[in-house]
Amino acid sequence: MKFTIEKKLDGTLARAGEIETVNGIIKTPAFVTVGTKATVKTLTAEQVRGLGAQVVLANTYHLYLQPGEDIVAQAGGFGKFMDWHGPTMTDSGGFQAFSLGAAFGANVSKVATGDEVEDISAYEGQLAHVTDEGVTFKSHIDGSKHLFTPERSMEIQWKLGADMIFAFDECTSPTAPYEYQQKSLARTYEWAKRSLDAHGKLDTEKKQALFGVIQGGRFKDLREQAARDLGVLNFDGFGIGGSFTKADIGTAVGWVNAVLPEDKPRHLLGIGEPADLFAAVEAGCDLFDCIAPTRMGRHGTLHTADGKINIKNARFVQDFTPIEEGCTCYTCMRHTRAYLAHLFRADEMTAGTLASIHNLHFILRLVEKIRRSILDDTFHDYKQAFLARYKA
After folding, report:
1. What is the pLDDT of residue 127?
2. 3-state secondary structure 286-311
3. Which residues contact 49 (CB under 8 A, 6 or more apart)?
4. Where are the beta strands (DSSP E) in the chain?
5. Could you count the other beta carbons within 10 Å of the beta carbon of residue 18?
6. Which of 30, 101, 191, 308 could be disulfide-bonded to 150 (CB atoms 3.0-4.6 Å)?
7. Residue from 366, 343, 364, 373 nearest 355 by CA
8. How many structural domains is the chain composed of?
9. How far apart are the first and last CA of the chain?
10. Which residue has the higher pLDDT, 170 or 111?
11. Which pLDDT does position 176 carry in this prediction?
């Protein structure tokens, strides 16, 4: 993998660049489309390509459980498995092991960590057992017990065959206290080194880029420490874990990116709202992934330049205009709000497809325009104009 910075935006950490992978070039900043189980829900790979997506991310936890990494490997990797022939990414599976590692029937809001039990209220109803070895969790499919370690995550991701993968990390709750975040940070650092070592033994030809993951919660000193510690390790890029609130995005990410090596790409994990994208770019992020555009679409919430609308509302039943005037997506060029309102009210599967096409098109075009605004020095004006209208 090769990362090139084309232009930096004066007075900010924002930059535009290119990431060259084995399977193609990503022009950054770029939104990473999420294909959790080797599919972007309700859409074909051809539709995703047609929308202008540059890169697809799949989920290690889900593909490990179903259909299994060996089957994906036999298919030639998850990209070929789903007929996506561009750049690909996989996450480490750590977040899902914590958040979906359900103890069936258990009503708990604790995560067991070694001999102690810490309050991780964000994962209420879940149970994962964390030790220095790794994370033991239960499958959300059948309740079977599994163990993810840095070595196991690297092995699975190697078989899934993505161009860019992530080191195994401990994803903490934003509400976790300082003492626990500090302990978790030390564990994530050790797991980062183990991930590097394990991946080096698997990827002897350097086909996969490995990203380290920065944690530290909402604490400036811990975030900066994580960036310093991982920044000197031989990672190809860095992911920034989102154990902070949305209000902290620009600040917390800025702490990290001011310390990380400038010549390596930075990926903000799990961010996809328009305002958050502007904040992430301004704070120095090059990539970001989120399921929000398609998930919201499947539930009838649609992006427009004037903000979100719920297409299920009665006022759209006889609205024969497109979702957004001037939008060039397939849905807006061919269908009306009234038609989508009908499909959702009738529980037709096509509703989710058409809504997802529009939302993904909207976000991909937004990030493309953000990139262009960096290159032509209009970022601040574009940000101000867009958000003023969108929030209004």
Report:
1. 63
2. CEEEECHHHHHHHCCEEEECCEEEEC
3. 84, 86
4. 2-8, 15-21, 24-28, 30-34, 56-58, 88-90, 110-113, 116-119, 129-130, 135-138, 145-148, 164-166, 209-214, 237-240, 266-268, 287-290, 301-304, 307-310
5. 16
6. 191
7. 343
8. 2
9. 41
10. 170
11. 83
Please check whether residue 89 is in contact with residue 54, taking contact to mean a CB–CB distance below 8 angstroms.
no
The predicted-structure confidence for 138-153, as pLDDT tens digits, reads as follows 888 888 899 999 999 9
* Alpha carbon distance 362, 359 (integer Å): 5
Structure tokens at 300: 């009838």
* Residues 367 and 280 reside in one and the same domain: no
C-alpha distances out from residue 180 to 101, 117, 173, 187, 264, Å: 20, 10, 10, 11, 29
Tell me which residue has tokens 């050790």: 190
Sign of CA dihedral 349, 354, 359, 360: positive
Residue 320 has pLDDT above 70, yes or no: yes
Task: Categorize the per-residue pLDDT at 95 as very low, low, confident or very high, splitting at 50, 70 and 90.
Answer: confident
Q: Among all residues, which ones are annotated catalytic?
A: 91, 289
What does the pLDDT look like over 172-203, one tens digit per residue?
A: 877 789 999 999 999 999 999 999 999 999 99
pLDDT band for 248, please (50, 70, 90 cuts): confident
Q: Rounded to two decimals, what is the model's pTM?
A: 0.91
- Written as one letter, the residue type at 36 is T
Residues 244 and 366 in one domain: no
DSSP secondary structure string, 106-127? ----EEEETTEEEE-GGGTT--
103 pLDDT higher than 60: no
Same domain, 198 and 345: no
